[in-house]
Write a structure and sequence with these properties.
Layout (H helix, E strand, L loop, with lengths): L3 E5 L3 H12 L3 E6 L10 E4 L1 H10 L2 H7 L1 E3 L2 E4 L5 E4 L2 H8 L3 E5 H10 L6 E3 L1 E7 L6 E7 L4 E6 L1 E4 L8 H4 L7 E11 L10 E5 L3 E7 L5 E8 L9 H9 L6 H6 L7 E7 L8 E2 L2 E3 L2 H4 L8 H19 L17 H29 L6 H13 L4 H10 L10 H8 L4
Parallel strand pairs: 1-2, 1-12, 2-8, 5-14, 12-19
Antiparallel strand pairs: 3-7, 4-7, 5-6, 9-10, 10-11, 13-16, 13-17, 14-15, 15-16, 18-19
Helix pairs in contact: 1-5, 1-10, 2-3, 2-10, 4-13, 10-11
């Protein structure tokens, strides 16, 4: 038996969840507060676990066609000295896929295109979620013209980001996101740039500069700085040039290929205090709403994709036989409570462990600012065994995605035309 779900948030995690739930036979509505789903954003690296999740959702091949594999790169000093080398070919041999780089907008577009028209409702702000009925949830929304509506659902998925307003329904006393101590400026170049590597990080004192090469020759760059929260610059690109323009090539060329208005600036927040649960009643937290982490391991989006596939697989596994319903008849989907227990048990330990590892990676990498600490870090990287970087990536990227198939009863009912 299928059910009806409301997903709050139309980002990567929310759209992936909608695809996964539809893949197991559920009906889904995605509610997105923004009036327009634009394609703004910078770039993203997808590790093997993220790609395996996308494969389980049926969109992996399309994403690969739009992405560029990351075979070459590593970590350098501001003067260009090599600290560590990334062996993308070794990762591909170990995991069956290399890390890939893709504009975030392209990934978002691929996920949107996998959903039917009308599945994503924009300009719909969720004003309340009522969990008082143990069999269903009631989601109230408001639109820009002042009108409101309500939906009853077997499941509500809160994929509403690091500043999730629905998180309080799961953990009322949680302190919420904390500032990591770092702020990031980033952009995509306006034109192709000649690059010697697919991916690179450069670590200085309390600062990091990195790039991701794209399939069309353009590149994403990011500049991370230790900074008090809320600091903003009149000209972000000029400030980035001031801070990083003297660092090694191709950093000056990347900045020269960037339009000033294209630079995004965001403070980095994370959930330092882990949540005691990802679920409450018929509500499940997913992605940054559940485990917002620093970007130091490149695992934020990958963990959200894991969440989406794991939730759908748990619902499929816990569904029992019965008659299939429509979205107007919520309240009897079997196995939802057991599936949410299973989702929490599978996802919370892993995602919170990855978040802790990302925080530690930042503290031992970009966050270091004392000259002696930086010198010790650089020396440790230089003398580390050649396979250390590959092993570090494997520690988090080697995840096997469950298969997503409709419950047997649903497949049988569909084959006989039962609705």
């Amino acid at each position: 038996m299928s059910g009806y779900a409301v997903v709050v948030g139309g980002g990567i995690g929310g759209l992936a969840t909608a695809i996964g739930l539809r893949r197991i036979g559920w009906e889904v509505t995605v509610l997105e507060r923004a009036a327009v789903l634009d394609d703004m954003g910078a770039g993203i690296s997808l590790h093997a676990n993220g790609m395996r999740a996308l494969d389980a959702l049926g969109v992996g091949e399309g994403v690969r066609r739009a992405a560029r594999p990351q075979y070459t790169g590593g970590t350098r000093t501001p003067g260009g000295g090599r600290l560590a080398r990334m062996d993308g070919a070794a990762l591909e041999r170990a995991l069956g896929t290399p890390i890939v780089g893709i504009p975030r907008a392209a990934l978002h577009r691929a996920l949107r295109e996998a959903l039917p028209a009308g599945c994503v409702v924009t300009g719909a702000e969720v004003t309340a979620v009522d969990l008082s009925d143990p069999r269903r949830a009631r989601v109230s929304t408001a639109t820009g013209n002042g009108s409101g509506s309500a939906r009853e659902a077997d499941l509500v998925v809160a994929a509403d980001g690091v500043r999730s307003r629905l998180r309080a329904l799961v953990a009322p006393g949680h302190p919420g996101p904390a500032y990591s101590g770092s702020t990031v400026l980033r952009a995509i170049t306006d034109r192709p740039v000649t690059l010697a590597s697919d991916f690179e990080l450069t670590w200085g004192r309390g600062a990091e500069f990195g790039h991701i090469a794209f399939a069309d020759g353009r590149a994403e760059w990011h500049a991370v700085l230790n900074s008090p929260p809320g600091v903003r610059f009149p000209d972000p690109l000029a400030e980035t040039r001031r801070r990083f323009g003297g660092w090694h090539a191709p950093i000056p060329a990347l900045l020269d290929a960037t339009r000033p208005g294209a630079v995004l600036h965001h403070d980095i927040h994370e959930l330092v205090t882990p949540l005691p649960s990802f679920v409450a009643g018929r509500l499940a937290l997913l992605g940054d709403a559940a485990h917002a982490m620093t970007p130091n391991l490149g695992q934020g989006a990958c963990q959200a994709l894991e969440d989406a596939v794991t939730l759908a697989a748990a619902l499929a596994a816990e569904s029992g036989p019965g008659r299939r319903r429509t979205a107007s008849q919520p309240g009897a989907a079997p196995g939802v409570d057991a599936a949410l227990v299973r989702y929490d048990a599978e996802r919370r330990p892993r995602s919170q462990a990855v978040a802790r590892a990302a925080r530690q990676a930042g503290r031992m990498g970009q966050r270091l600012s004392h000259p002696l600490a930086v010198a010790l870090r650089d020396t440790a990287l230089r003398v580390a065994p050649s396979g250390a970087t590959v092993r570090a990536i494997l520690r988090h990227a080697d995840w096997t995605a469950p298969r997503l198939t409709p419950p047997a009863a649903t497949r049988q009912a569909e084959s006989h035309g039962i609705e």
